[in-house]
């Protein structure tokens, strides 16, 4: 007999989870249906410009490092006030999607609903996480060195 209960979805993943001011989070979000919108230079450049702007994040958070891949985005985000991580990521995804939409008008939505996050603990090595994030294109075989990949940034440069 099939269950009549609805599938939990992304909201259920965040149920009971909070956001802490000052906490650093490793965040991953994917494009809608994992469509590689950002394999196109024009879209990737526009998206990168928006994600790299301080006013995309401030005053609620600081983006410590990030990388834009053809079908997803990773970042280390440090919350700076009592605003939830969900709100901060929602604002960034909305601003970036509007910027890309003005350039290319891809059909449908840009970002998938929801995101994955992991709160960095005191003993976590934030620099190790940052290195993992920015070397993503090398591991994916897109480039042989991160210096050949233009869609990333880090406060540790």
From TrEMBL:
Q: Which Pfam families match?
A: Y1_Tnp
Residue ranges occupied by any Transposase IS200-like domain in the UniProt entry: 20-136
Q: Which SMART domains match?
A: Y1_Tnp
InterPro entries, sorted: RAYT_transposase (IPR052715), Transposase_17 (IPR002686), Transposase_17_sf (IPR036515)
**Under what name is this protein listed?**
Transposase
């Amino acid at each position: 007999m099939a269950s009549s209960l609805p599938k939990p979805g992304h909201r259920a993943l965040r149920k009971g989870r909070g956001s802490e001011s000052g906490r650093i989070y490793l965040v991953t979000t994917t494009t809608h249906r994992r469509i590689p919108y950002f394999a196109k230079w024009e879209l990737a450049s526009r998206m990168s410009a928006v994600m790299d702007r301080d006013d995309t994040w401030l005053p609620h958070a600081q983006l410590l490092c990030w990388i834009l891949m053809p079908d997803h985005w990773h970042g280390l985000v440090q919350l700076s006030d009592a605003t939830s991580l969900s709100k901060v990521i929602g604002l960034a995804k909305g601003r970036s999607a509007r910027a890309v939409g003005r350039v290319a008008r891809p059909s449908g939505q840009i970002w998938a609903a929801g995101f994955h996050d992991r709160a960095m603990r005191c003993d976590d090595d934030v620099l190790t996480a940052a290195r993992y994030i920015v070397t993503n294109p090398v591991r994916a075989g897109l480039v042989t060195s991160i210096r050949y990949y233009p869609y990333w940034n880090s406060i540790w440069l």
